[in-house]
Amino acid sequence: MNQSYSRGSSLPLRLFLAVVCSAGLMFLDRYTDSSTQLRSYLTTAVSPLFYVASLPETLFSGASEQFMSQQAVLDENARLKETLLQQSGQLQLLRYLQQENEKLRALLGSSAVIEDKRLVAEVLAVYSHPFSHQVVLNKGTKDGVTEHQAVIDDQGIVGQIVSVGPTSSRALLISDNTHAIAVRAERTGVRAIVEGLGQWDSLRVMHLPHSTDIREGDRLLTSGLDGRFPEGYPVARVSKISQDASQPFMVVYAEPYALLDRIRHVLLLSNTPRVPEPTQETLAGAAPQEQP
Amino acid sequence: MRKAGRIGFIYLSLFVALILTVMPMPQLVKLARPDWVLLVLMYWVMALPQRISVGTAFFSGFIVDVLVGTVLGVNALAFSVVIFIVAQHHLKIRNFSVVQQSLLLGLLLALYQLLLFWLSHFLTGVYFMPQYLWPVVTGMLVWPWLFWLLRRYRRQLKIQ
After folding, report:
1. B54 CA to chain A: closest CA distance, Å?
2. % of chain A residues with pLDDT over 70
């Protein structure tokens, strides 16, 4: 029994060690590149836990909806009915854009990409910690998943892959605090950057001058300028604009199209090159002033 | 040999808490999900401070970091600090009634949430929202039941 007292003195020392270790970890994870590799090993190591944790849900599929209050279900129903009309239209456009994308890729001569272009993955776990919006997917390097792949669902952009293990991978959602995506307003062509806020239903459109032509309801599509996401996929709809002259920029919020908090199945798009590689034809035909 | 098996039961309860932490839930319930791992750790530190202490807290926090996807070390640090405080005062806290305990633990849970927020704020620039504090309230409400359950668990299995 007396060992419980003899150890008391070393407690502050242990805390000191723990603080030093975690400070080192934080530095390693945040400010060095080596953490990505480490993360993917760790993700692999803990992936059985995700399988176990999602067992009850897979067993009683849909049981989680039972937890929702009736009002929530009614609200959701009304909202879904409303969005269904709009989104079925978008869906057609999305299909069209995907086809166009394929054709353009074929024209570029990169037909190998089309072979394994899309990969359907299932969401194992959606972690809703406000500081990190990530999902774990059931596909990994064995299925050909690589880092930075764009993730979409049937309605819009969901996020991108940030770490990959052999059988599972982790996607960062566009609503995450650390995520930003380059967009273009469909109506006007205004380019902007959309950042996550750590909220499921709201993103912020950054750095728009007060004179920008943007309205509530404007559709924001990916511009492809960030080199991560292919062009033309719907991202979000402008939901709220507040013009405050004391602020340097307009405060614009947008609502993502993808239902980020209830995604089940997602599509992984294959990597597009960061900047389109100049082919012989484009080099020959390009005007010299295209070079910055 | 027998001793090792008994300690295994402590880790089993922590394992269950980890599963509860990542279990898929509807959005409304998720926001208010109690910090299961921290609560379970608090119980064990109070009951068996010679077995479970800052080291276990650090490693559990690290696993939570990996599972949740926060910056590595954030949860580890916050867990270590909170468990350190509980370990320092476990003799006092043990003598409180369950209601007093849950009030005190509410403070500690709030400290945990704030530590987590501050660190994440410096590292990734998150914004504060009041609903981040829901787990504190649910944690306080859950504590009496968890305390009762874990005490039965400990006495039934004679974990020392």
Report:
1. 6
2. 80
Across the interface, whether the CB atoms of B129 and A198 are under 8 A apart is answered yes
Residues of chain A with pLDDT under 50: 1-6, 8, 111-116, 273-278, 285-292
Q: Which residues of A touch B18 (CB under 8 A)?
A: 49
Compare all CA atoms of chain B with the CA of A163 and give the residue at the minimum distance: B69
**What distance in Å separates residue A185's CA from the closest CA in chain B?**
26
Torsion angle in degrees (nearest 10) through CA of B77, B82, B87, B89 = 150
Does the distance separating the beta carbons of B132 and A130 come in below 8 Å? yes
| B30 contacts B77 by C-beta, under 8 angstroms | no
Of the candidates B26, B30, B77, which has its C-beta nearest A22's C-beta?
B77
pLDDT tens digit string along B68-116? 878 888 999 999 999 999 999 989 998 999 999 999 999 999 999 999 8
Contact predicate A132/A124, CB 8 Å? no
Contact state of A200 with B27 under an 8 Å Cβ cutoff: yes
d(CA B101, CA B108): 10
Q: Is B111 exposed, middle or buried (0-12, 13-18, 19+ CB in 10 A)?
A: middle
Tell me the CA end-to-end span of chain A in Å, nearest whole number: 75
Judged by DSSP in three states, A158 sits in strand
Q: Closest approach of chain A CAs to the CA of B148, in angstroms?
A: 23
Closest among B3, B111, B96, B91 to B45, alpha carbons compared: B91
Chain B environment of A29 (Cβ under 8 Å)? 71-73
Q: How many CA atoms lie within 13 A of A94 on its CB side?
A: 21
Q: How far is A96 from chain B (nearest CA, A)?
A: 33
- Contact present, B27 and A60 (Cβ < 8 Å): no
pTM of the predicted model as reported, rounded to 2 decimal places:
0.69
Q: Is the pLDDT of residue B61 over 50?
A: yes
Chain B residues whose beta carbon lies within 8 Å of the beta carbon of residue A43: 66
Q: Which residue of B54, B70, B119 is in closest CB contact with A14?
A: B54
What contacts A213, CB < 8 A, 6 or more positions away?
A: A188, A190
Give per-residue burial for A38-71: e unless 16+ CB within 10 Å, then b.
bbbebbbebbebbeebbeebeeeeeebeeebeee
ipTM score of the complex? Answer: 0.82
Q: How far apart (Å, rounded) are the C-alpha atoms in residues A258 and A260?
A: 5
